Amino acid sequence: MNLILNGNWLVKFGAGWSGHCKKLQPVLENLAQHYNSDNENSKVKVAQVHCEEYESICIKYNIIGYPSLVFFDEGEIKHYRGPRLFENFKEAIDKHLNKEFVAFSQNQPSKIIVITNENLDLLLTGNWLVKFGAAWSLHCKKLQPVLENLAQHYNSDNENSKVKVAQVHCEEDNSICKKYNITGYPSLVFFNEGQIKHYTGPRQFENFKEAIDKHFKYGVKWSGHCKKFQPVLENLAQHYNSDIENSKIKVAQVHCEGDDSICKKYNITGYPSLVFFDEGETKPYRGLREFDKIKEATDKHFK
């Protein structure tokens, strides 16, 4: 690794699972073909670091997203933030060598939203994935690039995004971490309209994305609105399901968390969703969620 402390280097920090890294690889190969053909005399060399295998190197250089393109100039580093096509890289490298700093920057902006005591109320509305962590934690540092990629994916349009990615620095805002009983770093928590559920699955980008899309698109049994509605549903079941074999109307429920294929099949996009099934024909119920109102609509629909 001491090689990059001397001379000029363009280094890609990446991970094998990253789709963006895979997309960039042919461009990097062409750059290497162009600049590395004569390693001894080339003014710039192209290299890469596999962060899954050499995470200590990526931590050392504060890599927080994959791929990260970094220019090393006699040990000094600058991040590349321009377009990722061959000609763009070549132009930026040539200008950099001529001291025309255009596409390189000392700082790499983060799209992760930082939650503090001042904006804590944000978590009470909408859907969030929040990482509670500490700067000294190696596990937090290892997770940070994945979180950056999630933020890049979900936070690009903060106003319209259905899910936002955020983090809490427990060293600076310990009262928040105490409030949510955080006992280990990093802790990952889903917030759904203020309701919380801890994420305990694998910590790769695709695992998070799958879990996020599943929890926030099709509905889950821990939804506050579902919990509030459950007593009404129980009363309806008591009324209609007492004699299931002979009853003309039956009351049932689907837990979308466990049976998301069913919810996908019927295009369920909010929860709770109430649907009448009449010999296979479906009709959503959109009225008030009170016993009398639902009973009136049910009796009228199946009359």
Automatic annotation (TrEMBL):
Q: Which UniProt keywords apply?
A: Signal
* A Gene Ontology molecular function term of the record: protein disulfide isomerase activity
What is any one GO biological process for this UniProt entry?
A: protein folding
Q: Which domain of life is it from?
A: Eukaryota
Keyword Signal, does the record have it?
A: yes
Record-annotated Thioredoxin domain positions: 1-98, 102-217
Q: Which GO terms describe its cellular component?
A: endoplasmic reticulum
Family per record: Belongs to the protein disulfide isomerase family.
Q: Which PANTHER family match?
A: PROTEIN DISULFIDE-ISOMERASE C17H9.14C-RELATED (PTHR45672), THIOREDOXIN DOMAIN-CONTAINING PROTEIN 5 (PTHR45672:SF3)
- What is this protein called in UniProt? Thioredoxin fold domain-containing protein
